[in-house]
Amino acid sequence: MVSAQATAGHAVAMAVATTTRGFTVLPGLVPPEAVERTLRHLHLDLVRNGAPAETVGSWLWSAHWFPHLKWDDEVLGLLEHLPEELRSGELCDPQLLLQPPDDCEDVELTPHVDAEPEWANGRPYLRILGIALTTNRLSNGGLVVWPLDGGDPVGVELGPGDVVVMDPLLPHTSGLNREGAIRYAAYFRFLTPA
After folding, report:
1. Which of 46, 87, 162, 181 is at 20 to 30 A from 123, Cα to Cα?
2. Buried b / exposed e across 5-40, counting CB within 10 Å, b at 16+?
3. How big is the chain by its Cα radius of gyration, in Å?
4. CA-CA distances (angstroms) from residue 94 to 48, 63, 121, 153, 161?
5. Contact by Cβ (8 Å): 167, 85
6. pTM of the model
7. What CATH number does the domain containing 56 carry?
């Protein structure tokens, strides 16, 4: 069920396709209960199954945490609160992103543009949606984007339940987490339909 707030944010969300910056933030679209349900699901998996160091290491370096949970109702349920137009297209593998504190010196951030999966057969992404499950800010490694209209990189601040809608051509990366807590987010990419 889409909330009234999601419907109200619809016009803004769809305008991202024509904005010169290539991204927009839609605050509070996903209710706290849905965010909490997803976080609980992830943490219960750790309690029930544990996570050996080699597993956590592979998740950390691939930036895809809990790959065995990405299609679960608790994760996909985050999308139910967004306008249908934001969910149009073919959904690719959801990405659960956790960023523990970084233990390194400052490094120059290098942006990237997400590559479509091989099975897409050349079909481009329509949009990328990021949903914050915890506060995401520059000091905890939050999203940094290089606006399509030029200029300096911008840190995107998100509260739990906020959604960032990104043009698929928008260069972006995560920053460095200098705080003591893990940053959580979920990303959903939609392809042009076949």
Report:
1. 162
2. ebeebbeebeebeeeeebbbbbebbbbeebbeebee
3. 16
4. 22, 12, 19, 25, 16
5. no
6. 0.90
7. 2.60.120.620
Structural domain total, the chain: 1
* Domain that includes residue 66, residue range: 4-191
Instruction: Quote the tokens at residue 46.
Output: 């750790």
Task: Let me know: does 108 contact 175? Beta carbons within 8 Å.
Answer: no
